[in-house]
Specification:
Blueprint lengths: L1 E9 L2 E9 L3 E6 L6 H9 L6 E6 L2 E5 L4 E2 L7 E4 L11 H9 L11 H7 L15 H14 L4 E5 L7 H17 L3 E6 L2 H7 L2 E6 L2 E7 H4 L6 H4 L5 E12 L4 E6 L2 E6 L7 E7 L3 E4 L10 E12 L4 E7 L4 E7 H7 L6 E6 L3 E7 L7
Helix pairs in contact: 2-4, 4-5
Length: 366
């Protein structure tokens, strides 16, 4: 488990943030530029001395200012990937990667060289030098070098920020694959919400040096605090489901979400887990099964809560058989339909956003 509680004063800026995550998974630190994300990870890495802090990783204390404990950065066994790759320009890719192995305590590698090369698609690049790589390729090598140091924790500080959209799309699938393989926590810093939706298992929202919400991605994706950063149109449930049936002729697949199902356009095989986002603006509520509509996705649901969204709309939280989704409807619709906690109704889904990634099935390595 990673436990972090940090306070640091830098001029007029105050970082006062705390969160904790389990032994594996990707926790995204998300917020606007300047909210303190990089300052926080630099404290975790031991590159910046805090005013007050408690940082523990897997039962090992990295910082405890109250007890006068501060482990040097080089002893923390933390892999850190920056916005720029920081590769050795005079060494080829293989030599850059093997430099990470030199930092392994006792020379024992839990993640072998060959596996890192395969996971990140680096085989064809091993003989090249950094100046003959694309920006996306350089970042993949930097991530590989950090992994080969066999870290207890991996920090990725906006590793795609310097890349254009095409190169970001080149790297993201490899980061997807890593999540299924790593048995260590990963802290991923970003101010791009689409990256967070695609990669994260946990989400920490930061605003002006403070954590305003944290928890599993699915829960925080429905937290009203998110709207202060992304705006109201990004509010929606992020759900991981399993493909349970394929409709070969139509190209659709049935995705199980708790006790509900969605039809999505996907060529993924049966048993594959897929992440989708259902935006609140794309859900329609009905008191019964509608007819004569082009909308084909309809799920039974029970109202959990109704909260005022703004002067004209309400946000309705709904249980669809385990997972929860949110719908934004007008105040008038709330009154006319009698929407209240405990009411059973139908949720119509106008569109489903597939987050560009698949998740490993149980017992499978991505």
């Amino acid at each position: 488990m990673l436990q972090v509680a940090v306070r640091k004063q830098l001029g007029d800026f105050t970082l006062d943030a705390a969160f904790e995550v389990g032994d594996a998974g990707i926790v995204a630190l998300f917020g606007r530029s300047g909210c303190g994300k990089t300052t926080l990870v630099n404290v975790i890495a031991g590159l910046l001395e805090p005013d007050e802090a408690t940082v523990r990783l897997g039962g090992i204390t990295l910082d405890d200012t109250a007890a006068g404990t501060r482990m040097p950065a080089e002893r923390r066994r933390i892999g850190y990937v920056f916005q720029d790759s920081r590769l050795f320009p005079h060494r080829n890719v293989e030599a850059n990667l093997r430099y990470g192995l030199k930092r392994v305590p006792g020379g024992k590698a839990a993640i072998p060289f060959e596996e890192v090369v395969a996971l990140l698609g680096l085989g064809p690049l091993l003989g090249r030098r950094p100046n003959h790589l694309s920006g996306g390729e350089r970042q993949r090598v930097a991530i590989g070098r950090a992994l080969l140091s066999q870290p207890r924790l991996l920090l990725l500080d906006e590793p795609l920020a310097s890349l254009d959209a095409a190169l970001r799309d080149e790297v993201l699938p490899f980061l997807d694959r890593l999540r299924g393989r790593l048995a260590i926590p990963v802290v991923y810093v970003s101010h791009q919400f689409d990256e967070v939706l695609r990669l994260a298992t946990h989400l920490v929202l930061m605003e002006q040096g403070r954590v305003i919400a944290s928890g599993e991605l699915g829960a925080v994706s429905l937290d009203p605090a998110l709207r202060s950063i992304t705006g109201p149109d990004a509010i929606g449930a992020v759900l991981d489901g399993e493909i349970v049936e394929r409709e070969i002729e139509s190209g659709f697949a049935r995705l199980r979400l708790g006790s509900s199902e969605l039809r999505i356009l996907s060529d993924e095989p049966i048993g594959r887990r897929v992440r989708v986002q259902l935006l609140a603006r794309d859900l329609i509520l009905a008191l019964g099964e509608p007819a004569g509509l082009s909308v084909r996705n309809s799920m039974s649901a029970t109202v959990v809560s109704v909260t005022r969204d703004d002067s004209h709309t309400d946000l309705v939280l709904l249980d669809i058989g385990g997972p929860q989704v949110a719908a934004r409807i007008t105040n008038a619709a709330t009154r006319d339909l009698g929407v209240r906690p405990g009411l059973s109704l139908r949720v119509l889904v106008k569109s489903v956003s597939i987050r560009g990634q698949t998740l490993p099935t149980a017992g499978e390595t991505a």
